[in-house]
Amino acid sequence: MKLDGTALAVTTILFVIVAGIGFAASRWRGAKLNTLDQWGLGGRSFGGFVTWFLLGGDLYTAYTFVAVPGAMYALGAVSGWFAVAYTILVWPIVFVLMPRLWSVAHRHGIVTPADFVTARYGSRGLGLVVAFTGILSLLPYIALQLVGIQSVLQVMGVGSNSSGIVKDLPLIIAFVVLAGYTYTAGLRSAALTAFVKDLLVYVTVLVAVIYIPIRLGGFTHIFSAVEAHARTLAAQAKAKHTAPSFALLPSSKSYWAFATLALGSAMALFMYPHSITGVLASKERETVRRNTVALPLYSLLLGFVALLGYMAIAAGIKTTNSRLVAPLLFRDLFPSWFAGVAFAAVAIGALVPASIMSIAAANLFTRNIYRDLIRPRANAEEEARVSKLVSLVVKFGALAFVLGINTQNAINLQLLGGIWILQTFPAVAVGLFTRWLHRWALIAGWLVGMVYGSYEAYGVKTAAVPHFAGSIAKIPLIGQSGYIALTALVINLVVAVVLTALLRLAPSSVGVDITTKADYFVQAGDSLLDELELPKGSDEVGPALG
Amino acid sequence: MTVEQQSGQKPSATGYVVSAVLLLAAFVALLWVPSYSHLTPTLGGIPFFYWYSFLWLILNALCQLGAYQLMVVAPRRKQAVRGLGVRPSGAGQ
To answer: Which of these, A98, A95, A115, A104, lies nearest to A365 by C-alpha position?
Structure first.
């Protein structure tokens, strides 16, 4: 593709500004960045406003920006639009689960979901399982952020005439900068850059959703173009005796698929360690809950972003690489300079989640592998040192992965990541309410869920793609198509419940729970942690949205 | 906030039930796909299926606001009325 100089210049300038903010974050709020609480959780000091941006930053990644419109463009309502239902349903789940997690974490100095599981079930083995699953699911997710940047660079025409290292140089520079400021300032850099990122994203999406339909003759015209497109594809599929891939509405064959994708993804999102990082970094128990009232604004934005895929159909954009749909739409319909802003929104949108994810993965390694298995006596400073180094390793690992192996593998692994992370739901989410489930039964259930989910995903194929063609497969017994992750979770839970009933016959095998009932209701200011490490919190703030 | 103050902040039984209903509403609405997988009526050219999802985005936010009032704000207010100096039974358990 032809190099777009104006767009590239605008994107570069915005990128430099964000990088500067990222490095400056190390001085934000008088940070002492030598403990894991400070580096990896921003001192657990974020109020409602910052938390809103941080959690939104988790949800709204560069990959979302390219993948959701891409799915709408190529597949339509089921595999694309489910994302809107999913990002609505995630907030009631957060409302119920996360205040309890915040409290118990505050009381026991918990940094990762695996820390919680270790404390709750008295089982390092189970903690290790949760940490392992978290890291395994985060790595391809980080890699996909790079794929997001790549698709923007490709549409801008950067490096199209060169080869080898020069071609990938912009991506490498972007990641080196990201790694640098995350290493220096930790979660604070992610929070501060999240402001700029979201500003860019909001401006881009609002302009896109108003300006592009005007250029295309309104939503009536857009949807009639999509309807015509759906009919054409259906006729082609019928001629070839295959099932149509594109759907304008879920049909009776795909109701289950739509619903299970939405529910399963909503349940999975806050099992990802980086989402939990954003929750634990907030200052008060009710910050997150109050935020769930305002966070759906991000879901609204996601709905608009999804519609970009349909606008691309109406605008006559033709590509076989669905990840390029949104960037191509920006390039073709926006003036160059604003396309630059939009590309910057996507590229910078990659940096914030990648930073939070690498911090979360590093925290998991430090707390649940390094400290629990290798150096039990590691102090807070040592933990922070290790975490910082691991965050670098994780990011360069992701970079090497995307540059060295083909992109499709990263996407397949991300798809598997969603299935894998949901298998920690019984230990983490159910564990917040009851510890009836036995630690060994949970490990067994997890193993069965992981193996079943991976195997089923491997077997999903289309005419063009032999494996990992999607995350939908037939649900045993029900016979309908459904999201593999949710089916695997149900099997996981059944195994866990049955084995728990058996193992409970030998009460001595049940681990020691160091948490108490009251720990799940602790507020800021109640715990020992405050007196030891943190300055006394200010008075309880009234509800911002009351 | 001290332990004495926070331990009195429990929502009423009705508060729990109503909150649960409010929080479950969006699940019923959005996961019951056949109830809204229709093209008509359209709104500003957008088929029903799509704008109905947006509608639930707003309704769910309002439901959560209601649940927040019941679970967090109302118990706090009750606590304030009861007087801050009184140590409720069961503190620190």
So the answer is: A115
Minimal C-alpha gap between A454 and chain B (Å):
25
The residue in chain B having the minimum alpha-carbon distance to the alpha carbon of residue A218 is B45
Phi, psi values for residue A320, rounded to 5°: -95, -15
Contacts of A142 (CB under 8 A, 6+ apart): A354, A357, A358, A361, A394, A395, A398
SS3 A464: coil
d(CA A276, CA A287): 13
Chain B, nearest residue to A99 by Cα: B72
A5-215+243-404, what's its fold?
Sodium/glucose cotransporter (1.20.1730)
Looking at the partner chain, which of B6, B46, B56 has a beta carbon nearest the beta carbon of A219? B46
Q: Left (φ > 0), alpha (ψ -120 to 50) or beta: where does A541 sit? A: beta
pLDDT, one tens digit per residue, over A468-500 is 877 888 888 888 888 999 999 999 999 999 999
Cis bond leading into A535, ω under 30°?
Answer: no
Domain ranges in chain A are 5-215+243-404
Domain-by-domain residue ranges, chain B?
17-75
Q: What are phi and psi of A472, to 5 degrees?
A: -110, 130
DSSP 8-state code for residue A365: I
What's the farthest any 2 CA atoms get from each other in chain A?
72
A434 burial type by CB count under 10 A (0-12 exposed, 13-18 middle, 19+ buried): exposed
Tens digit of each residue's pLDDT (9 = 90 or more) over A299-335: 888 899 999 999 999 998 888 888 889 999 999 999 9
Sequence-distant (6+) residues with CB within 8 A of B58 are A296
